[in-house]
Amino acid sequence: MGVLHGDCKEVLKSLGDASVDLAYLDPPFFTQKTHSLSTRNNTAEYSFEDRWTSLDDYLAFMAEVLRASRRVLKETGCIFLHCDRSAAHHLRLLLDQVFGSENFQSEIIWAYRRWSSAKKGLLNAHQTVYFYSKTGDYKFNTIYTDYSPTTNVDQILQARVRNESGKAVYRRDETGNVVIGKEKRGVPLSDVWNIPFLNPKARERVGYPTQKPILLLERIIAIATDVGDCVLDPFCGSGTTLVAAKLLGRDYIGIDISLDAVRLAEERLRQPVRSESQLLADGEEGFLEKSDAERRILRALDAVPVERNRGIDGFLRSYVDGHPVAVRIQKADEDIEMAKRKLIAASKTKQCAFTILVRTTRNEDYSLFDWTDEDLLVIDSYDVAIEAWLDERNHSGS
Amino acid sequence: MGVLHGDCKEVLKSLGDASVDLAYLDPPFFTQKTHSLSTRNNTAEYSFEDRWTSLDDYLAFMAEVLRASRRVLKETGCIFLHCDRSAAHHLRLLLDQVFGSENFQSEIIWAYRRWSSAKKGLLNAHQTVYFYSKTGDYKFNTIYTDYSPTTNVDQILQARVRNESGKAVYRRDETGNVVIGKEKRGVPLSDVWNIPFLNPKARERVGYPTQKPILLLERIIAIATDVGDCVLDPFCGSGTTLVAAKLLGRDYIGIDISLDAVRLAEERLRQPVRSESQLLADGEEGFLEKSDAERRILRALDAVPVERNRGIDGFLRSYVDGHPVAVRIQKADEDIEMAKRKLIAASKTKQCAFTILVRTTRNEDYSLFDWTDEDLLVIDSYDVAIEAWLDERNHSGS
DNA sequence: AGGGAGCCTGAATCCTCAA
DNA sequence: GTTGAGGATTCAGGCTCCC
User: Fold this and answer.
1) Strand (E) or helix (H) holding B93
2) In this predicted structure, what is the pLDDT of residue B106?
């Protein structure tokens, strides 16, 4: 147990047969670039070369590492290989050769949102982790996740019976109350994992390039090992895998060819911390503030919705005279005057050509409202227009 | 254009070189099983054999189909190959050989939620679509989606520069004010697509095995082709690709070895239907075609779009006094009077509570138009309201 | 031609300042 | 002091442009 320095091809030879329960490999990708990054306070800079003379060269190297990793795995052990888009298919072929295609278990998709670029084509927003077992009899702990937001709570909790006509209905006791069914554990984890990409500003970042989010490693370790088992990471880098293993009570062996990396990993292991991402804690919905109706109105205006602003709900997609146009939808609990104040206050610094306020309620006193603002256009939502017309028609008809 | 019957290897020979803009292939998977499924009313059962003597056999067949597909593609054309988990890596190697690894564009992950099973291991919840171009100069239309809820307004609006130390900072003019950047359309679509799996109860389902959601096909067609371009599907099955192509105004060529499939596809093409569940499903991912103003207006009205009616574009989701409310959006090439006539004519037999006409153009003579129809409400679209206000502001300002 | 410098991205954080 | 809205900041990106 510990962090070893050297080429993993060589160092792996010093480990005994069938001695580890899980091998996680995050090898250098076949990108032909040098990756470097500084720590957040610029005290150190870490880098590594990702250059190979050819793809065959790279694959020969990886084949040797995979065979060595297989040897040290216990019979119930598993391997998780982290691949990037350029060589994933070649690496899976290697895995088929070394572990056998019958031991392929899953292609895990790590999906994330990331800063964008001006790339022609689709934005790359996932990486692949291949999951192979050494034998058919491998260790696997099922993880349960939350139900989909569209799953009805009643469906999860309440027991069901079939009534006389064979239709499934909720079970009720003598007094007519619904009966809560047996404990549900949730939905088994799927092979698509939405885990936020380690953000450039994240505190979790230690300055080593290609650092992975700790949640990704925790999940892999939790799936494939129990407490006390041993985790191997032949390309441990800054040691995220080892930190996750230590925090989960597993033994660990890390190897890296860079002495900087080994020292950094040892440093992190002395004080293992698990920082919680705000996004993970709150979930994406925590940031979403708009109702369905508001979104529909923004779409109809051809406006881009924005969150994280109390006064502005969106901007028109097209600028007017080179200036943006801010939009606010009147909220259910605010009068038109307050909506106007909030919109104008929020737009002050945004150099807007003008602003649009969409009115969504009618039953107000508008006698004091100033409709003649030069830079504010008030539009009735379609619903308001329909209601007003219906009202008028009913009155004139009676 | 049409649906051809036969082995695609042979039928493709009858197509000319460089004649199609997009090839979408959803070949039989290498699963060694027979797939079959009945229609919802059990009127027919479709099945196909998915058996090959060996993997090499299967790959030899696919290599030939890929080469034939490449030949018929225009120089700016693209191919999308739908793979399953068992052979995806082999198929990507074939694509590298036939199209060249430098023409690899994306590995698209189609992710979906699915009913869970008790299987040991992770729940399979994705399929892979490989996207290759024929040359480096290929056609690609970027689709834009919403910003992440964590992105703030400043980030979206303000221009940035690098200062002397290479740090990115907001750009400011001489007076120290921030500078607003150019128009923003949102975030480019990523390579991970969350599209609901075709619900077994969906109206869209026609009972053919492995049927794909139409939204998936619409997206592929929208990014790789323009209106009037030609889409090829050598394994067209029940014809979802062709239906999507037709609905989006593209030409199409479908091929299938099963006569049942060809007949079913031809039947669907006579009455192309797009199920409502799929329409609602794209709410989070944004609209397929930003220019699809009509659909945006219908959604803002909370109306259900209807196809195949020359006078009515949709109905309000909620009835008024137990009667439906028909909606028409004024078309670009018709004046308001004609739009009104068509709407009223089409609604005559529908027992509507009233009808709504959404006005989308302003530069007309309205002096003869009768605005006081008891059963017709004319609403200005948001765009018209904005244009009118801008016009007025400019006139009063000058 | 080919390779490096410079530019534009936006996600998700950190950080500041006002209430 | 505490909170929280919103301004600021970096990057396992990817173009274009310029030698």
Assistant:
1) helix B88-99
2) 95
* A212 and A256 co-located in one domain: yes
Are the CB atoms for B225 and B254 separated by under 8 Å? no
In angstroms, rounded to a whole number, what is the distance separating the alpha carbons of residues B299 and B314?
A: 10
Residue segments in chain B with a per-residue pLDDT below the cut of 50? 200, 276-291
A121 vs B106: CB contact, 8 Å cut-off? yes
More confident position, A102 or B182 = A102
Say whether both A6 and A67 belong to one domain. Answer: yes
Mean pLDDT check: name the lowest of A230-244, A349-363, B158-172, B317-331: B158-172
Give the CB-side neighbour count of residue B331, counting CA atoms within 13 A. 12
Is B132 domain-assigned? Answer: yes
Q: Which residue out of A308, A317, A393 would a mutagenesis test of the B interface target, given it has the greatest number of B Cβ atoms within 10 Å?
A: A308
Is residue A5 very low, low, confident or very high in pLDDT (cuts 50, 70, 90)? very high
Sign of CA dihedral B25, B27, B31, B35: positive
Domain, as residue range, for A352: 289-397
Nucleotide with the nearest C1' to A84 CA? D12
In 3D space, the residue among A29, A33, A35, A27 whose CA is nearest the CA of residue A9 turns out to be: A27
Any B CB within 8 A of A354 CB: yes
- Chain A residue numbers touching B93 (CB-CB < 8 A): 89-90, 93
Report if residue B199 sits inside a domain. Answer: yes
Q: Is residue A117 located within the same domain as residue A163?
A: no
Query: A255 and A195, same structural domain?
Result: yes
3-state secondary structure of A332: coil
**Phi and psi dihedrals of B226, rounded to 5?**
-110, 170
Residue percentage of chain A with pLDDT more than 70: 85
Q: What total of structural domains would you count in chain A?
A: 3
Is B197 an interface residue toward A (CB < 8 Å)? Answer: no
CATH number at B96 reads 3.40.50.150
pTM of the prediction?
Answer: 0.88
Name the domain boundary from A232, A255, A281.
Answer: A281
- Chain D positions with a protein C-beta closer than 7 Å: 5-15
Q: Are residues A231 and A295 located together in one domain of the fold?
A: no
Could A108 and B122 be called an inter-chain contact, meaning their C-beta atoms sit closer than 8 Å? yes
